[in-house]
Amino acid sequence: MINKNSQQGLTTIGWLAFIGLFGLIVASGFKILPMYLDYFTVQSVMDGLVQDESIDARSKRDLWEAANKRLLINQVRGIPRESFTFSRKNNVTTMAIDYEVRKPYIGELFIGAHFVYSVEIER
I want to staple 99 with a disulfide (CB 3.0 to 4.6 A). Which of 74, 75, 83, 88 is the partner? Predict the structure, then answer.
């Protein structure tokens, strides 16, 4: 038999725990989302360099200056020049990026991500 007078639902402590957990997930999303948006912007900048015929693919300096200009236009800052590597073999230039992002989270904890991407420019 079912007792019609039994209590159903969450208690106040249960609701507070649920709201706290939900808030932690939302706060984590606000920290992680900008990292990935910047990474997707870096990917599109590098893909754009492949399509741009006016850039000399043999020159590391030209590639870096074009990439840096496009990153600044898209407001992506904090990626150092050392994160980019350039190599050339058989008329194919490989441009790669390997960088890490760390953001403060709660107290002494941080959220971090490691991103790697490369493109090949055939010119």
Answer: 83
